[in-house]
Amino acid sequence: MYPCVRESYLKNGYKSDKTKRGSDKFVRVSWEKAYDLIANELKRVYKDHGSDAVFGGSYGWFCVGSLNNPQALVGRMLGIAGGYTSRTCTYSTHAIRQITPYITGTDESTAPVTVYPVIIENSECIVFWGADPINTNQIAWGVPDHQSYMYMKELKEAAKKRNIKFYIIDPVYNNTGLYFGAEHIQIRPTTDVALMLGIANYLYTENLYDKDFVHKYTIGFDEFEKYLVGESEDMVAKTPEWASKICGVDANVIKMLAKEFVSKRTMLMGGWGTQRAHHGEQPNWMMITLASMIGQVGLPGGGYGMSYHYSDGGVPMPAAASGNALSEKPINGSVGAVADTENVAASPGLSGISINSKMDGPWKQRKINVIPVSRIVECLENPGKEYNFDGKAYKYPEIKMAYWAGGNPFHHHQDRNRMVKAWQKLDTFVVNECFWTATARMADIVLPATTEQERNDISKSHSNSYIFAMKQAVKPAGEAMDDFDIFVNILRRFGANEVLAFTEGKTKMEWVEAFYAESYDKAIKSGVKMLPFKEFWEKGFVKFETPESAKKFVKHAKFRQNPVINRLGTPSGKIEIFSKKIAGYNYKECKGHPMWFEPMEWLGSKVAKEFPLNLVSPHPKYRLHSQLNNTWLRDLEEVEGREPIWMHPKDAAKRGIQNGDIVRVFNKRGQVLAGAVVTEAVMQGVVRMQEGAWYDPAEPGKVGTLCRHGDVNVLIPDVGTSELAQGNQATALVEIEKFKGEVPDIGIFKAPKIKGV
């Protein structure tokens, strides 16, 4: 773990040969040398090209911690140094978080959902639609406390007593389906909207939908109704038979689902997988429309929710401690304490480091440019190009330098070969990293950063039930340094005022104490008991109780009780099945109401003649995206050291592939090796390969080379969902063949060649 610089960059700086990124040797340098190189390059780019030419929109899941959040810290440093271009949205929720505020007035990806105790008691039919909470709730944005598994166990037990029916609508029979013994509705990837439309059409034509709910709580159904029965747009009625031809679900099954949904108290649990697709705005819009037609929104155990699969979604949480003083009377003269009172079951939350300094200076006047996070490659390729996003027109800046900290874009971005080529347009690429990831190997300057185990910090659970002391467990490896210290030392090259603006005069431990003190003060004023910092740090955590009222929460219950007083945050105050605002944007691929748009690649497209298998790329079971892929956990799933790919027996037999064979998966975007797993858990015509395997190019830096390990994003297209969200995709059409010749060794888990070590 040492600061390293790409050899040709060390010799020639920003004029070096960019095509050598990934293949060049690295040279060990001192920290001082590395800081000088970075600071001087930042100053050059600011002077010659302006602040927009520096991209500091780091993105990724590393790490928990209120202080050592690399993404916030890199933005804070660059904002103080001279400005930068950042990003908006996430690869996880790009489409859903852009579309749903138009429909219900809130970002449904993180909006509260009906809690499990209510579902356990009231739901009669539960639909996991593109969701796998048994798998994905292992992780959380923050510290996972895994309460959802306790509730899912209770739900499973309740299902036996109350005969709760479970459905899983997915091309793959996933872990959640197995756990609950759910009936599997096999659906072709990216055709969920067609299935929903088929159900909706049947409800409408058979007069089974809830007219009263639609009339009272929604707006725009008249416009949608015309489309549903074939009186607008394509002039085709969206019957179950029409839907069946697209989604592959039998028309009689579609009718059965429609009748099932309205005859039982039904909860639609939507995942985020359906929105990571071409026209990914449509599935969530259509699911809310379908839930409205079923008419159970706001009823206990009914309606919809779109975050049950994420960070303990559905778990009752402590209420927010507002900080409003219950009493100003001190106890024993101690400032901030309150008079004796029954403790309130609430959580004060926990703040973290901001990208913005509170100190006065020129950085206060700087306006940060932003681009949609998944459009970074398009931005590099097309500086100055005008693009549409969320109702407005923008222009891509010309990026000359990028600084990444706490992320792995050469994992999470799509169309790897296109990305490799686009990255060659950068003059300089700097990375703070703990490991030699594919991203680090593509950098010009690599700075070794500490892991969570090597530093002190503070964090909380996503459920707000805990605040945790994150105590340093081991000394930093080699010369690794905290991201906080790295950025302080870069700013020393800019001036004392810049350093002060970054630190605000606090040491790292003082920042940790300050975050806790803010929560403590809010808690005490709200009547919530918390330990003083020293006691908290010694104990390691503080727990907040969940009030009984939180265990009765029903999504949209108040809205249903009185839609006038409790109006939604939409222009109409209602669920907007038709949005005048979106219609006014005049986008060709996202109109005024939910619709079926044919994806660029799906089993019904012309591309399927050459590449007849539809690849899906769900979240992995034994890692967090690409994290932990460089550990022994690989052995639990990999096939001969390759990422597994699930194939239906008939698809495998047609290609002469057997279980355990090494195969080449390819399309026009690229090629990867994978290990065949022949199973009926995946529907015929579909193959499954988890995202997150480390990119391992046979010829590093060369566009089109074979990935020896199985990075699925080599194969996924990098095309925005539509002009509304400009989100990312997670499916592709591919072909598979048994690999011929000697299987190459894996190289990504071996350190690159470094001079001076």
Task: Describe this protein's structure.
- The chain is α/β, with parallel strands linked by helices and 757 residues long.
- The protein has 3 domains: 257 residues, 3-Layer(aba) Sandwich (Rossmann fold), CATH 3.40.50; 200 residues, Dimethylsulfoxide Reductase, domain 2, CATH 3.40.228.10; 149 residues, Beta Barrel (Barwin-like endoglucanases).
- It is built from 25 helices and 29 strands.
- The chain is globular and about 75 Å long.
- About 3% of the residues have low confidence.
Helix content: 25-40%
Count of β-strands: 29
Number of helices in the DSSP assignment: 25
- Please compute the radius of gyration using only Cα atoms: 26 Å
CATH class category name of the largest domain: Alpha Beta
Can you tell me the overall shape? globular
Strand content is 15-25%
* Biggest sheet statistics: 7 strands, mixed
Global mean pLDDT: 94
Number of domains: 3
Terminal CA distance: 10 Å
Cofactor: Mo-bis(molybdopterin guanine dinucleotide)
Keywords: Metal-binding, Molybdenum, Oxidoreductase
InterPro entries: Asp_de-COase-like_dom_sf, CT_DMSOR/BSOR/TMAOR, MoPterin_dinucl-bd_dom, Mopterin_OxRdtase, Mopterin_OxRdtase_prok_CS, Prok_Mopterin_Oxidored
GO molecular function: electron transfer activity; molybdenum ion binding; molybdopterin cofactor binding; oxidoreductase activity
Task: Note the main attributes of this structure.
single chain, 757 residues, alpha/beta, Rossmann fold, Dimethylsulfoxide Reductase, domain 2, Barwin-like endoglucanases, 25 helices, 30% helix, molybdopterin cofactor binding, Prok_Mopterin_Oxidored, oxidoreductase, metal-binding
